[in-house]
Amino acid sequence: MNFGSGKTKFVEGFLSYFGLENEISSPTFTIVNEYKNNVSNIFHFDVYRLSDVSEFYEIGGDEYFNKGICLIEWGELIKDALPKNYIHLFFEKDIDDDNKRRILIEYT
Predict the structure, then answer these.
(1) In a domain, 1, yes or no
(2) Is residue 7 helix, strand or coil?
(3) Side by side, which strands form the sheet with 32-36?
(4) 105: left (phi over 0), alpha (psi -120 to 50) or beta
(5) Strand 69-73 to strand 32-36: parallel, antiparallel, or no bridges (unpaired)?
(6) Considering the entire predicted model, what is its pTM?
(7) Please, which residues bridge with residue 92 across strands?
(8) Mean pLDDT of the chain
(9) Residue 33 lies in a domain
(10) For 20-35, what is each residue's pLDDT tens digit?
């Protein structure tokens, strides 16, 4: 995953499915933003600023996994804390067109 690859834009699109398209803000400094509607709780994490996985546990990050949908930017930094089964999305910029992204999907 890299900077400017479309992670937050993806979350914006994801939230729009739930009617929350006007709610998004990047959780870079807050670590997690919570969005609610009558279907599900959605938690948007940006763990880039955490120094290691222990900080994720200290903020109770793993407790969110059973409370709703968790979208985690830079999730590879806390891989040891992730649930056994999750979907990993890889975002890549298109080398020929800066406005296009490629998303690779891996199921664990």
Answers:
(1) no
(2) helix
(3) 32-36, 41-46, 69-73
(4) beta
(5) unpaired
(6) 0.84
(7) 102
(8) 87
(9) yes
(10) 876 676 666 788 999 9
